[in-house]
# Entry
Amino acid sequence: MGKLKLVAVLAAVLSVFLAATAASAASSSAVNLTAPSSSVVYGKSVVFTAKLYKGTRLIQGGTIQFRLGSCTGQQLGPNKTTNASGIATYTMDSTDFNVGLYTIAACYTGNLNDYLPSSRTRDIRIDKKTLTISGYTANDNVYNSGRSATVVGSPVLNGIVGDDEVAIVVNGLVGTFDDKNVGVDKPVHVKYGANGLVLGGAHQGNYKLAPLTLYADITPRALTVTGLSAQDKPFDGNTAAVITGTPVLSGITEEDSGERYGNEPTVTLSGTPVGTFESASVGDGKAVTVSGLSIEGPDAGNYDFSLPVLFANIELPVPTAFVTANNAAAEGKAEAGDTFTVTMNESAIDLGRIISGWTGAETAVVLRFFNNNVAFGGNDGIAVCTGSGMPTCVAGGTGSQNILGTVDLGSTEYIVTNNVDAPGTLSWDSNTQTFTVTVGTCTSQCTRFSTGGSSTATFKPINGATQAGGLRDTAGNGATQTVNEVGVHF
# Structure
């Protein structure tokens, strides 16, 4: 080989050796890339930290590029230079991205001649931001066997980032209670989706709606009874009322009655109605309360059950004749304590004209018994007088100035001693509208009569047009009632 050729070969070998030596002098480097978490909520920031190493030693001055996907992808921000701790950072603003999964690469460029390029990637997921809705309220419901709730108001979205275009689209406004039963502050869930609320707008894909729960009451449903009537009655001194008709629940839902689906009713009526007048006194349109009925069943607690107030009259008794309180005296004699009564309509009489100054309290009267008196058509009878002795207490005529009324025994079956007086008392009961005459002590000459007759005794108040006494109406006219005996007298 010639000398020159040898020199050329040696030079080439030396060049390759030097290049290899330089290459071997450059050390390999490593990049470590970290982030606080693997996900971030849209609208939040996350810091990626890259560290440049040679072995375990951190390298200062290295150029790091943060790129999307890989070191050939889109660069995210300017080049960063590692500090004395070998660290370079990139702050990712999630609003620069849409929701999704991304790969971030930290790439060392190899700008330091002593270190070779290197890279590291890390995945990050951007999650949808949750928005809340305000501005809606749920109306209270009266129990109706259902769970639907009425939602009202105008929606307001809370939590939108910056100027993002996001809005509520109302496809329907549907609220649903947890259950159908009566309660206070019960949760009402508002429906989302095709028939409810959804998000709209250019940036709606980066958001989701938080469940919307409102609160409202379900109040008891009014339930009462129809089909009942209270019956009028004559005054009897008590408040008992007769109730007629068939009680029917009014206000029950079709579901609870079983009518809608043909199921067994979940609310039923039990008991027997009992009526009570507000008082025992005479009057028209008196309130009658109903008791004795109640509801039962699994849904009974969802109702506010009340019984109706009915109305009826307590009327003045039908006029009756004088009757004995003890039903009959010993045959042939009127005895002390025997009574006879007559029922009159108070509106037709003036108590002040019966006895001057009389207030209706018990007062003394005289009973005069007549035999075959012309005033009784030749029959026997009794006059009730305010005085005593003849001639004022007579069966009739202009001389009877103080006579209140007469009892026409009307039959010869009664054997009455003529012109015999017996003491007595007169009283008035405004509730029963009844005058009661009580016989006082009778002597052996007191009236004797037979109780076996079938005749009718009548009470005839004296006509005020010709007599100063008697039972009179407020116009001064004599009361006109004539009442027939329906029981045994004396």
The domain at 30-126 is CATH 2.60.40.1930 (Immunoglobulin-like). The chain has two helices and 35 strands. The two ends are 181 Å apart (CA to CA).
